[in-house]
Write a structure and sequence with these properties.
Layout: E1 9-14, H1 17-29, E2 33-38, H2 40-50, E3 54-58, H3 66-76, E4 81-86, H4 91-99, E5 104-107, H5 112-145, H6 155-167, E6 174-177, H7 184-193, E7 202-206, H8 212-220, E8 221-222, E9 234-235, H9 237-240, E10 245-249, H10 256-268, E11 270-271, E12 280-281, E13 285-290, H11 294-300, H12 305-311, E14 314-317, H13 328-342, E15 349-350, H14 352-360, H15 366-380, E16 385-386, H16 393-396, H17 414-428, H18 433-440, H19 444-454
Length: 458
């Protein structure tokens, strides 16, 4: 049984109980997850609820035929693979099935190994259709939004992009959270590029990079004479972003006094420049970001609860790079392509050993650290191929403590066996904890707790 087919749900549709029972036993023994529908009417009711990966259906079943089941399944999920069976095969019904989009037309009686081989091909077919759709969407996204658009095929990352695309046409305030270097400004610019304000300005500021007095002057502006050195009026960034989008990065680093003024902006859509008495109405879409846990900061008294609720109208959380390891080489390719374009030369490529090193590293600095590592590699590598010697030592020689030591206990405990199995699954999934949790059949939060208990990265 191939890994790709294992565990796929198969809706088996027939009006004969004996056939359903026989197919259920066969499919379950081969690693599939069969669901049984006695007749076409039952199948039509089950398809929206079960969303099967594959449908295996008889054709002749009374009023609701296998072709009807095929149409309903394809309408619900265009990637579903439908296999039709019949004991009364004719050229006409075969052509009808194929024209309607059936993956395969199977004549009864058939051999068990023949059916399993067809199901395995159907599983491959479905996966390829999904991958092709994802790739096509990625190409279209790049064409629409240029080389700087966020890229990735990881499920969690695609969920982020879908949420960004859904909120972009609205005027809702967005709070982007995630570790440093995960691409918060990239996503903010992506939202702006899809919004009705896309043809207007995108202003940004790092709230943690300026002292309080200077930050307020930059945000709200000031009037002449407001403080020493204020020799003329200054327009603040909120006003400068009129009609466009203002990105407040590291909003969690602002002081309580600044937070009060930001709350007024969000509540009343107006600013008061430093030293002024009259308020100025602003028309600005606000997107904020932070790598801090603001809810924890609220408990400690370091961040205003009311401001948090005003900012967190739409929350977008970016996964760290270690949880989207399947995107590392895709991101690396883009970095190398951009480096080649900047140097007006063909992009350099990674050899297999260097690629494996990139995928095996935890990337605490996330995408930003990956970009810096590859920029260094391009500079120090004389040829066209980057090997492990061109990568930073921290990437190629990780000093991490394994979950299980090489010396095995004479009588291993259940915990030791569990630790070993979790390590095996993590390695098989290239460190992707989300997919590892799916393979283990546990929630990601449970996996994180186990890793923390074992002393691994949580």
């Amino acid at each position: 049984m191939t890994d790709r087919a294992s565990g796929l749900s198969v809706l088996v549709v027939d009006d004969e109980h004996s056939m359903l029972q026989t197919l259920e036993i066969l499919l379950r023994a081969e690693g599939f997850a069969p669901q049984l529908a006695h007749g076409g009417t039952a199948a039509l009711e089950m398809i929206p609820r079960l969303s099967p990966d594959i449908v295996l259906s008889d054709i002749r079943m009374g009023e609701v035929t296998g072709v009807d089941v095929l149409a309903a399944a394809r309408a619900h999920d265009p990637h579903v693979a439908v296999i039709l069976m019949t004991a009364q095969a004719t050229l006409q019904t075969a052509m009808q099935a194929v024209n309607a989009g059936a993956f395969y037309y199977l004549q009864k009686p058939f051999r068990n190994d023949e059916l399993i081989a067809i199901l395995r091909r159907a599983a491959e077919y479905r996966q390829l259709r999904i991958e092709n759709t994802t790739l096509r969407q990625e190409i279209q996204r790049r064409e629409r939004h240029g080389a700087g658009a966020p890229i990735g095929n990881n499920r969690a990352w695609l969920d982020v992009l879908r949420l960004a695309e859904a909120v972009a046409p609205t005027e809702s305030t967005v709070l982007i959270t995630g570790e440093s270097g995960t691409g918060k400004e990239v996503v903010a610019r992506y939202i702006h590029s899809l919004s009705r304000r896309a043809d207007r300005g995108f202003q940004s500021i790092n709230c943690g990079a300026l002292p309080e007095g200077l930050l307020e002057s930059e945000l709200f502006g000031h009037v002449r004479g407001a403080f020493t050195g204020a020799v003329k009026d200054k327009v603040g960034l909120f006003a400068a972003a009129a009609g466009g989008t203002f990105f407040l990065d590291e909003i969690g680093e602002t002081t309580p006094a600044t937070q009060v003024k930001l709350l007024r902006v969000l509540q009343h859509r107006e600013v008061i420049p430093v030293g002024a008495t009259a308020a100025q109405v602003i028309d600005t879409r606000i997107i904020a970001a932070t790598n801090r846990d603001l809810e924890e900061a609220i408990k400690r008294g370091g961040f205003r609860r009311d401001l948090f609720y005003r900012l967190n109208v739409i929350g977008v959380h970016l996964p760290p790079l270690r949880e989207r390891a399947d995107d590392i080489l895709l991101l690396a390719d883009r970095c190398l392509q951009q480096a080649g374009d900047a140097r007006n030369e063909a992009p350099k490529r990674l050899d297999d050993e260097a690629a494996a090193a990139l995928q095996g590293y935890e990337w605490p600095g996330n995408v930003r650290e990956l970009e810096n590592a590859l920029e260094r590699a391009v500079i120090v590598t004389p040829g066209n191929t980057i090997g492990v010697h061109g990568l930073p030592v921290r990437v190629t020689e990780q000093a991490t403590e394994p979950l299980l030591t090489e010396r095995e206990a004479a009588n291993p405990t259940l915990e030791t066996i569990e630790r070993a199995y979790i390590q095996f699954v993590l390695a098989a999934e290239h460190g992707n904890k989300t997919r590892a949790a799916e393979a283990l059949g546990i929630d990601p939060s449970t996996l994180h707790r186990k890793l923390a208990r074992y002393g691994g990265e949580s």
